[in-house]
């Protein structure tokens, strides 16, 4: 995986955003998921975050990984959950991060422990660590061009839809204040890729 100066700057920015959101909203853990294009030759992966149709056409499928990506743990009891996530990938549509990536819309779930294993392969880890609600947002940086990032935030307890909508609005506002180059993608951008 090639780490350019631009990607390093984006990772620093994401780290600051994850910390700001967790500290402001008293969240125990946040992590970044990166798109990964698989080229179909067994275990070999092309580790790039460019998921434009041209790049995606050359791959078998896109999955998400969090290994070596920015994360923030405000409560050390949850560091094991991040390590478990780093050992696995998610397919598009799996878990809150996979849904945010696939839909290009902020995604909220009131309790990740309610997922079925097929919907979220990491659900047994979420249950073990007693995580609750979660929010994920797909972003793109003006520094790295077509590279996308999915930021995922976990709550320590279940949260209802009204509380989740309010939290999503608050998290978005905190992210906008802390962000310099990251922004949500528009549907128009995705259509023109």
Mind summarizing the main beta sheet? 9 strands, antiparallel
**Residue runs with pLDDT of under 50 for 5 or more positions:** 189-193
- Helicity level, as a percent range? 25-40%
So, the CATH homologous superfamily?
A: GAF domain
Which CATH architecture?
2-Layer Sandwich
**CATH topology type:** Beta-Lactamase
Q: Give the rounded overall mean pLDDT.
A: 84
Tell me the number of strands.
Answer: 9
Protein name: NLP1-9 GAF domain-containing protein
Domain NLP1-9 GAF: 2-183
GO molecular function, one term: DNA-binding transcription factor activity
Main features:
NLP; 7 helices; single chain; Beta-Lactamase; NLP1-9 GAF domain-containing protein; 193 residues; 23% strand; alpha+beta; 9-stranded antiparallel sheet; NLP1-9_GAF; globular; disordered C terminus
Task: Tell me what you see in this structure.
The protein has 7 helices and 9 strands, in the order H-E-E-H-E-E-H-E-H-E-H-E-E-H-E-H. It has 193 residues and is an alpha+beta fold. The chain has one domain: GAF domain (Beta-Lactamase). Strands 1, 2, 3, 4, 5, 6, 7, 8 and 9 form a 9-stranded antiparallel sheet that branches. Strand 1 and strand 2 form a beta hairpin. Helix 1 packs across helix 6. It is globular and about 40 Å long. The two termini are 23 Å apart. The C terminus is likely disordered. It comes from Selaginella moellendorffii. InterPro entries: NLP (IPR045012), NLP1-9_GAF (IPR055081).
Topology, element by element:
Blueprint: H1 5-25, E1 29-38, E2 45-46, H2 53-57, E3 61-65, E4 71-73, H3 79-86, E5 89-91, H4 95-103, E6 107-109, H5 123-128, E7 134-141, E8 148-154, H6 161-178, E9 182-184, H7 187-191
Antiparallel strand pairs: 1-2, 1-3, 1-4, 1-8, 3-5, 6-7, 7-8, 7-9
Helix pairs in contact: 1-6
């Amino acid at each position: 995986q090639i780490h350019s100066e631009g990607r390093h700057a984006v990772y620093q920015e994401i780290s600051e955003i994850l910390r700001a959101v967790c500290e402001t909203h008293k969240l125990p853990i946040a992590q970044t998921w990166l798109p990964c294009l698989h080229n179909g030759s067994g275990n070999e992966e092309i580790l790039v975050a460019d998921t434009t149709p041209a790049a995606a056409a050359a791959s078998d499928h896109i999955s998400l990984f969090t290994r070596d990506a920015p994360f923030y743990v405000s409560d050390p009891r949850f560091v094991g959950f991040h390590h478990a996530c780093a050992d696995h990938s998610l397919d598009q549509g799996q878990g809150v991060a996979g849904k945010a990536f696939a839909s290009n819309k902020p995604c909220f779930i009131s309790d990740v422990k309610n997922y079925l294993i097929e919907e979220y392969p990491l659900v047994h880890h979420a249950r073990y660590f007693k995580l609750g609600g979660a929010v994920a947002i797909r972003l793109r940086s003006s520094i790295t061009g077509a590279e996308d990032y999915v930021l995922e935030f976990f709550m320590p307890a279940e949260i209802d839809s009204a509380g989740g909508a309010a939290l999503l609005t608050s998290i978005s506002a905190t992210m906008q204040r802390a962000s310099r180059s990251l922004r949500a993608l528009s549907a128009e951008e995705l259509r023109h890729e």
